[in-house]
Design goal:
By secondary structure, the protein is mainly alpha-helical. 78% of the residues lie in helices and 0% in strands. It contains ten helices and no strands.
Length: 269
């Protein structure tokens, strides 16, 4: 039953994404509305999958690379749903759907077995540390999606009335992401001191999380000093996405370290 909801979510996300694309290209409102309803069905399946996996595992499903990827994708979808219903934003939907589906599809390539938590993960900090990281990455990805949208609109019409709104939301999403990443790093340091008697071990994951934090902190500083707005801000949001993805995927799979446990565990057991 878990696989039904898991692959059902992937399929519905993909169908919603495709219909959205053709609805935008052919300017068919019916297709666009249908795509959103199908995406919401995929989001429901995605949510049910996480709940059922959590019940079956007896914990919050964020213990390895697969589960984090599913949560990461879900975080993108949660923020997208909020932006759609609370703020009525449509311009971000197409690219955001692609990102949610792509991360979810990446999860499908990973081992899906459920294992007990490793001793190092049995901590009160488990949910807050990993959950804040998932939503920080999701915010940065959506900032990238907004940046892509800004660039495409700017090329067609530099005076488009939507540009200031998109520029603002790029800034807000980066600010939220940076705040959550700060929480992630601080909680991680406290957890590391409890687990390994050291607040900072220069583990590759820690280093790349810090690199990501510094990168977005510089962006936010330049934004607040009015030295990075408009197209520059949009391009930064897009170019920074590979750094986020490397911090998420590359470090865990390429560079051995203390944070590689999820991938190693899933491969060994």
């Amino acid at each position: 039953m878990l696989d039904v909801f898991f692959f059902g979510g992937i399929g519905l996300y993909f169908l919603g994404m495709v219909l959205r694309f053709f609805g935008q290209v052919w300017k068919k409102d019916g297709l666009t509305k249908a795509s959103w309803m199908i995406f919401m069905a995929g989001f429901a399946a995605h949510t049910v999958y996480l709940v059922m996996r959590g019940i079956q595992a007896g914990r919050v499903p964020m213990a390895n690379q697969f589960e984090f990827a599913v949560m990461f994708s879900w975080g993108i979808s949660v923020i997208l749903v909020f932006l759609h219903y609370r703020l009525g934003l449509e311009w971000i939907t197409t690219v955001a759907m692609i990102m949610a589906w792509a991360i979810y599809l990446y999860a499908a390539l990973l081992p899906r077995e459920i294992h007990e938590l490793m001793p190092a993960l049995r901590s009160v900090w488990f949910v807050s540390h990993i959950g804040s990281a998932a939503f920080a990455y999701a915010s940065f990805m959506l900032a990238g999606a907004s940046g892509i949208r800004y660039i495409l609109i700017h090329k067609k019409d530099k005076e488009d009335e939507r540009l200031p709104e998109i520029d603002y939301f790029i800034y807000r999403l980066i600010a939220i992401g940076l705040l959550l990443l700060t929480v992630t790093i601080v909680i991680g340091a406290i957890w590391a001191e409890e687990a390994w008697s050291s607040f900072w071990t220069w583990d590759p994951k820690e280093v790349w999380a810090l690199i990501t934090w510094i990168l977005y902190a510089i962006c936010l500083h330049l934004r607040l000093s009015r030295k990075m707005t408009g197209v520059k801000m949009a391009w930064f949001a897009v170019i920074a996405v590979p750094v986020v993805l490397f911090t998420f995927i590359g470090v865990n799979t390429i560079i051995p370290g203390l944070h590689s446990y999820g991938v190693v565990l899933s491969r060994l057991m």
